[in-house]
Amino acid sequence: MTFRSTFLVTALSLALALPACLAAAENIKIGVAGAHSGDLASYGLPTVKAAELVAGDINARGGINGRQLELLIEDDACKPEIATNTATKLISMGVKVVIGHICSGATKAALPIYKEAGVIVISPSATNTELTLSGDYPNFYRTIFSDNVQARTIVDFTINDLAAKKIAILHDKGDYGKGLAEFAKTYVEEDESVELALYEGVTPGAVDYSAVVQKIKRSGADAVIYGGYHPEASKIVTQMRRKKMTIPFVSDDGVKDDTFIKIAGEYAEGVYATGPIDVTANPIGKAAREAHRREYGSEPGAFFDNAYTAALALTNALIKAGGTESEAVARVLRTEDVATPFGALHFDDQGDTTGATLAIYRVVNGRYVPIR
Amino acid sequence: MAAPNVRLTWGDTGRALLTSLWFVFLTFPFLAVKINPAEQTVLWRWPNLIHVAVTTFLLSLAACLYRQYREARLDRKTEDDLPVGHNPLHLLWTRPGVRLPLLAGASAIALVFPLLFSTYQTNIMITALLYVMLGLGLNIVVGVAGLLDLGYVAFYAVGAYSYALLNLHFGIGFWTALPLGALLAALFGILLGFPVLRLRGDYLAIVTLGFGEIIRLILENWNDFSHGPSGIANIPRPGFFGLDLSLEGSITYLYYLMLGLVLFTVFVVNRLQNSRIGRAWFALREDEIACQAMGIDKTRTKLTAFALGATWAGMAGVIFAAKTTFINPASFTFLESAIILCIVVLGGMGSIIGVILAALLLILLPEYLRPLADYRMLAFGTVLVAMMVFRPRGLISPVRRTYTVRGRTISDEPA
Amino acid sequence: MEYFVELFFSGLTRGAIYALIALGYTMVYGIIGLINFAHGEIYMIGAFTALIAATVLSLFNLPLPALLFLSLAAAVIWASAYGYTIERVAYRPLRGAPRLSPLISAIGMSIFLQNYVLLAQTPDFIPFPALIPEFAALEPYAGVVGSSDLVILLSTALIMLLLSLFIKFTRTGKAMRATAQDRTMAALVGINVNRIIAATFVVGSALAAVGGLLIASHVGQINCFIGFIAGIKAFTAAVLGGIGSIPGAVLGSLILGLTESFATGYVSSDYEDVFAFSLLVLILIFRPAGLLGKTSTEKV
């Protein structure tokens, strides 16, 4: 009895999945993995849409060598333990290339499994430095800057452009935020002309950050660097400004989100954040955004441009390699430039993109305006 | 079984109508209105309310019929008046001549499972078996000894991090780490046990919850020790006599390993429950003061419960680390403790077979409900509430040992 | 010294916020001995209803006080309705069931409500309008205490006072105390126990809704998961003060808030929660029933 119910459910799910498999025998399967449900879905779903747009385009033009692209979309809820299931499931379904995962932790858990099966993975948003720099994952590529690059940019900007002498660094104790803050701390300590005034992690989800804000005030910092996401950032900025602290607040890609401005309102003015370069002027980026509006009736969400770039790079490699043979695909990814919203680019030996993808923004009149 | 006499009166229909109106009122702000506070716009969705009205009307009629049906069948007896374990699942399980074939069938399927199904299915099954083990471990603490532990996940984390860190720094392999992880978790169990010896019931619950959070926070903050929130990657899978296994091979291997460990757990827990210490735990659960008066050393009994419960969590943690090959503190949140607790309670506190069933149900259900996407967790919550409302004693109530003395059955049910 | 005062006020605000939620927790626990994990979700429902009401009403260009009052009324009405329904659906059928079954039912209810709001509205954080006005008189002291901090502190004090009076002097309040003491005896002297328990849920939920509006307005944003962390903290505070006791819940909340604030200020916010929970363990070792809880002697 223990296993009978399982058996029934399994049989049922297999029966449901079977017709789809038969019909798609000739298709090229692309896995799309990431958080598609729950509180982090807003980071994962834009990638699905980007992949759908690119795949739809190619299929409309007759596919690759007459083979249609088929997307297999799997949710990992950004959890490492689920990501391993997702990875094995995709491999079981015969996937050879994957766009995803979204979170660094989930990506790290899934990569060894993909590596063993010779699957190529391109992430639009996993920024953890080790993913590329450790050299452990030769099958991994990404279309986003890594944490250390972002931290370097933030620290350089704070020291050189804002002329800060005492810097407070805060983070949200999370995978992304703390990783970034650690790099920022190292860079600040390396520079002898500036002083690290404070280094602290705030508790995410707490109702009130006034104690931390008082501590920043007491530390005498003349700039705050924050690593993390926008919900905490907006609380901290709001409380700083309400307490009449006007020192600059510099943050990361997790804060470069329009929701941040909507929540922090007037207090968001003047906040700096790094993010992917503005692609609204690039013809491909513009076309992608228009296609998104046409298809889904809304503005694209987080990491859409990065995901669109990943999908373009991957499909370009599939076309040039004539199939999913992993060495051929990897060769194309590493050597041949592809036109993307971020301009023409390919991947270096570690799997990071060539060319700049990072810019600094400032909130002016309720909008993020690129300043560099 | 003759169909009991059920029918709907006008009064019932009226009540159902009222219920449906009440739910329309209740869901009105959430389902009929959709706000976009950033743009200051409001979207009205009136049709949703009609769906709610119709669905709740039909549901409350169905509930009314069910109630009448049950009352007619039970002849106005409430569930409490019935002997423990009066439920179809339980009756099926205890019927002579059913248990053996069932067990044989289940073991046969379990044995050939990886051969029949894909690696993905096997992989999910390993997760389910992992939770069977966790459930059985927590069952010792909560189900048998009656100590409500809301921080069980801490011991799971201790096990996982023991293997990850020992492997990272000293290159210790899976098989050495397995007993070490279990031992360390047991030590932590005793460590937690000491300060909470005096506490009862829900005070104990909150302290264990706090303990779980403290362990997670330390793992998150102490970067030099635990690598912080970015976690530890590249943890090796268990080796098989030095052979390098392929992905498929190692998953199959892990499956059989897990199956073996679950059998071992079932065997040990079963023996423990019928041992001297097991009887002491039951006594402790039923009445702490009476138990002490009977000459049972309360301190030792409680500490062994914590330590032995933690041991299994430690082992499960080592296997978890080996299975995912990557761990970070985000995997060890309070929600995890809550799910393991749900397994124990849903299974019927203290019943081994119940815990196994509940673990399979609660872990496999969300996995197969994945196509439902966001409705998955909604369904999960509903199942938990419905299960408790319809089966407050769990899937299978534990069977007390009975003794036969000169033809009379003496149950050790507490008076 | 100034720093100390600043930290003290931060802690006080935090404590008052916890207290608003902890009061409902402690009432429900006092009467049926259930850790109502869904209480945090009621707080979230209250905050969401207030936001929905405020957004809809702002279409009519109402003045701020009217907006505040009407949103508060909507939040209280719907949160109470949800509290009542949850008790009816998920807890009442479980009277007399094993002790842990209602707890699991509560966890299930909490997961259900989170995802219900997620699906019906949005999973993202959304801005919450500042319904509490800024007082010009407080402008010089902005560095120490803001208007919303002050409103939260005063509301908490007022609510605690009213609630204590209600429990002590009204008929329903007396019936609640009787039911909490001994449910069977209360029924025997003619108290409709089911109705009194339902009333407790309604009052507790209404308090959570007031908390929801004030806190959301202070923080400026909400999403469907805010109830979880707030619920756990409030529960900790209630246990710290002695669960079931109303002044205990407030005292526990203030101590928890102050501990967190001073730990952040003088040590590090990295370990803020570690300090909070360690303090809890320490207090419970010396007073196993919380600060103001009564240790009941058990007879066999």
Key words describing this protein structure:
heterotrimer; B: mainly alpha; ABC transporter involved in vitamin B12 uptake, BtuC; 68% helix; C: 300 residues; 1% strand; globular
Describe the structure.
The complex is a heterotrimer of chains A (372), B (415) and C (300). Chain A has 372 residues and is an alpha/beta fold. Chain A has helices spanning 4-23, 41-60, 80-92, 104-116, 130-133, 147-161, 175-190, 210-219, 230-242, 258-264, 283-296, 304-321, 326-335; strands at residues 28-34, 69-75, 97-99, 120-123, 140-142, 166-171, 195-201, 223-227, 249-251, 272-276, 338-340, 343-345, 358-364, 367-370. Chain A has 13 helices and 14 strands. Chain B has 415 residues and is mostly helical. Chain C has one domain (2-286): Orthogonal Bundle (ABC transporter involved in vitamin B12 uptake, BtuC), CATH 1.10.3470. Chain C is 73% helix and 1% strand. Chains in contact: A-B, A-C, B-C.
Question: What integer is the average pLDDT of chain A?
Answer: 86
Tell me the strand order in the biggest sheet of chain A.
7-6-8-9-10-13-14
- The total of helices of chain A stands at 13
Strand segment count of chain A: 14
E-strand count of chain C: 2
Distance between the termini of chain C: 54 Å
CATH homologous superfamily caption of the largest domain in chain A: Response regulator
Shape of chain C: globular
Strand content of chain C: under 5%
Largest sheet: number of strands, sense, barrel closure of chain C: 2 strands, antiparallel
